[in-house]
Structure of IGFBP-related protein 1:
Amino acid sequence: MVQKVLFSCLLLSLISFRRLLAEEECGKCDRLECPLVTFCPVGVTQDKCGCCDICLKRLGEKCDYAPEGKEVSKVVYGECGEFLSCSEDNICECAEEGQVCGSDGLTYNSLCELMEETTKNNELNVVDREPCRKGPVIKSPPKDSSRPAESILVLDCEAIGYPVPTLTWEFYRPDGSTIQLPSDDSLVAVQVRGGPEKHMVSGWVQIMKVLPENVGIYTCIATNSQGVAKASAKVTFSKGKAPVKKY
C-alpha cells in the first residue's frame, strides 16, 4: 500500500515537473504578441506551446516524422500540411497522386503541385480531379517525303490532348479524290497506339510500295470532344521516271 502511494506521488511530481518545464520554455501565452499569419497554402496549426498560429509545412520542407500509429516524440521542424505526409527522411511529400485541373486552365501533376502554386496566386483552386480538358495538338506531324518507285515509306504522327484524341488518316489523290484510311489498298497499312507520353496517341501509315496510286497528300487527323487538329505531308516520287498509274 505504501509503495502504491509513493509511486502515485512520484508520478504526480513528474507530471508537474514536465508542465513546469513547458511553462518555462513557452512562457505565458499572449496572442497579441504572436506574428501575423496572413496566408498559409497548406493550412494553419498552432506552435508547440499551443499559443500562436503558424503555417503547416509545405511540399519539400523539413518535418517531424513519426511511424504510423505513433506521435512525434519531439517537435523540431513542424507538421506537414493538407494532402502531405512526412517521410522517414523528414521531408513533406505529396500524399495524393494524380493530375488535377486548376482554375487557371492548367493541368498540374498533383494536387500538392497546385497547392504550391497558390503561393503565387492565392485565388487558384481545383476545378477537377483530372487533367484539364484540352483540344488535340499535333506534337509530331508527318513529313513530306520523296521516294523511288516501289520503295517502302512510313509516315508517323503524334497528338496530345484530353480526353485522349482518336487518330485517323485521310489520303488526297492528285485527281481530287479523298480516301479514308485504312482502305482496301493492301499496300497501305495504318497503325495506332497510345503514348509515348501521357494523354498522347501515335499513328503510322506504312506504304509497302510507293506507286502512282498512292502518291499524294496524307493527312493525320486528331479528334476529341474539345476539337480537331490536322497535319499533312506530301508524298512524291524522287528523281527518275515514275511508273504508269493504275487507277
